[in-house]
Design goal:
about 475 residues; two-stranded antiparallel sheet; disordered C terminus
């Protein structure tokens, strides 16, 4: 009390805060409203298109437009510059369409007149669709067809993650909950039996049942036994789906279950590293779309559940995680690593001016801002970013892992976590080059054998043939 009285006698000065400059942003977003997974192929609905367009518009107003309150330094405000932005999604109808809708809100049409082009012969060409801006959408290797897959790990292709998630289904926790909720699920049979078999109407289908009824509640004026589906029932179904899916996505004693979050962590670090390495000249804004499994597994790996219990739940449509790279130092020249910070933000559902994303501390910390070094160290501890590391961790030895399995352990020891969920773009390129080289050398050997040719045994040529100078740089 005396301390408070003393403070009241002191002169009051306005608090000053160092100005922040946002240098780069990584956004990971879920899609908007879609049709049910129980009736594949799932499609983005008109409502979902509007939701995701509104989300893109919100982030335009936050980071892109000339009047944005957190405008990314040097980013083109109206006409997109493709070297500054990267957008990606798995090969999935819902996620790819959602990404395109988001980009339309982020960089809307600029009008036909500013984009007129005069050809050499004097004719004038106007850009179609009132100046619609074309932004290429890259594909990521993990999560393909995830919105048509009811099984959470169905799109991961990671053998050990599948084994780990299946282990939950034989756990005492799972069996107990399945037994205690069986009567509840069976009571909903009249509303479900046109789509689900009697064996499927139980806790083992917790997400698909919730998803099916939630979609029906949003879109169907009537559906069988709709009187059974009260708000209370939907809330209970959502709570059970949250438990089911979180435990399939993450386990703190068997983190390979969170492979989706681990590969996402590597993608984020690799992307923001591009911004830093290029001194802000490239890769200012990254947008990636993915399924809720990536959210849940990242929430667990980053220990966000210790901050807020809501992170145990499935994020709503158009939810987004954002990583802001910023500085409080002078933005030019580009700050050193010591002057860089990162902030994590999350918004459940569509962001709007009435509901901004909230900052949360990562890795069980207290502060919502982290130094660049602490951020990358924390992310690299949970990330899986090279093909060799992914193959080793997943226990895969076929497909993309067939040629790299032998070197998996050594590459994993290098601790290079800077790629995506399968092979990173760099690693995939190296492997492709090596395979091509092997094929060329094999053909050359056959031709020389048929022609009766032989190699001249010179020291330098022997070194090349033995591959001493062919090892890729680490």
């Amino acid at each position: 009390m005396k301390f408070c009285q003393l403070l009241s006698l002191l002169p009051v000065f306005p608090l000053s805060q160092a100005a922040e400059t946002v240098l780069g942003v990584y956004i990971f977003s879920r899609h908007g409203d879609r049709t049910s997974k129980s009736t594949p192929p799932a499609d983005l609905t008109d409502l979902g298109y509007r939701q995701i367009f509104n989300s893109g518009t919100y982030y335009r107003n936050r980071y892109v437009s000339s009047s944005a309150n957190k405008r990314i330094a040097g980013l083109n405000a109206d006409v997109v510059k493709l070297s500054e932005i990267s957008a990606s999604a798995p090969v999935d109808n819902v996620l790819m369409n959602a990404a395109q809708g988001f980009l339309q809100g982020l960089y809307p049409p600029v009008g036909a007149t500013p984009q007129q082009e005069t050809l050499r012969n004097g004719s004038v060409v106007e850009i179609p669709l009132n100046g619609y801006q074309l932004i290429p959408l890259q594909t990521v290797t993990s999560g393909a067809k995830s919105e048509d897959t009811a099984w959470l790990q169905g799109a991961s292709n990671c053998a050990n993650a599948l084994i780990s998630s299946n282990a939950y289904r034989t756990s005492q926790e799972y069996m107990s909950l399945a037994d205690s909720t069986l009567d509840f699920y069976k009571s909903l049979t009249p509303a479900l039996n046109t789509t689900f078999s009697p064996d499927e109407i139980s806790f083992k289908s917790a997400y698909t049942i919730f998803d099916y009824l939630n979609v029906a509640e949003i879109h169907n004026a009537t559906f069988p036994s709709s009187s059974l589906i009260t708000n209370s029932t939907l809330d209970q179904l959502r709570a059970l789906a949250n438990i089911h899916e979180y435990n399939l996505a993450y386990n703190n004693t068997d983190t390979i279950r969170a492979i989706a979050g681990a590969t996402l962590a590597a993608e984020i670090v690799e992307a923001l590293n591009t911004t830093v390495r290029s001194a802000g000249n490239a890769g200012k804004m990254y947008i990636q779309f993915g399924a809720y499994a990536s959210f849940l597994s990242f929430f667990g790996l980053a220990n966000l559940t210790a901050t807020n219990a809501d992170f145990f739940g499935i994020p709503d449509y158009t939810s987004a995680m954002t990583f802001e790279l910023f500085t409080t130092a002078a933005p030019t020249p580009f700050p050193s690593a010591q002057d860089l910070q990162v902030r994590f933000l999350f918004h459940n559902g569509t962001s709007s001016t009435a509901s901004d994303p909230t900052a949360y501390p990562l890795f069980g910390g207290q502060a919502t801002e982290m130094s660049w070094d602490d951020f990358t160290a924390g992310m690299n501890r949970i990330a899986i970013g090279t093909q060799a590391h992914w193959c080793s961790a997943c226990g895969n030895s076929t497909g993309v892992c067939a040629s790299g399995a032998g070197a998996a352990s050594a590459s994993r020891a290098e601790g290079s976590n800077t790629g995506d969920g399968g092979p990173s773009k760099v690693v995939a390129g190296v492997i492709g080059a090596m395979v091509t080289l092997a094929v060329i050398l094999g053909v050359e050997a056959v031709v020389m054998s048929l022609a009766g040719l032989r190699l001249v045994r010179k020291i330098r040529m022997r070194e090349v043939a033995e591959g001493k100078n062919a090892a890729p740089q680490a």
